[in-house]
Design brief:
about 110 residues; Arc Repressor Mutant, subunit A; about 70% helix; rod-shaped
């Protein structure tokens, strides 16, 4: 089995989620719905379940961070990492120049 996850287009995800959401009343859980419908849609049942859960969050039907909030969190984590790296460089520079300028060294 291929270990690389499949990449689905936003259109495929959207249509699959709509298909499941339109039929949710026939199932006792999102898991049950996705387990039965995923093979018919030719997508992984766990991928489908995650998409449906996120769609429910985005629609306000379920608690959790929205797709927009998740994207913002990801961007902020990246920014924090960049700032921490820059801070380390600045600290090292400050220590270097403090040593260079120390009158006791000369």
């Amino acid at each position: 089995m291929d270990s690389m996850p499949k990449q689905y287009t936003p259109e495929v995800k959207s249509r699959a989620v709509s298909y499941v959401m339109d039929r949710m009343d026939r199932y006792k859980s999102v898991y049950a719905a996705c387990a039965e419908m995923a093979p018919k849609l030719n997508v992984g049942k766990e991928s489908l379940r995650r998409w449906v859960l996120q769609a429910q969050v985005d629609a306000g039907e379920r608690t959790g961070p929205s797709s927009e909030e998740l994207a913002e969190i990801k961007a902020l984590k990246s920014k924090v990492k960049d700032l921490e790296e820059a801070n380390e460089i600045l600290k090292a520079s400050a220590i270097f120049f403090a040593r260079e300028l120390d009158p006791r060294r000369h």
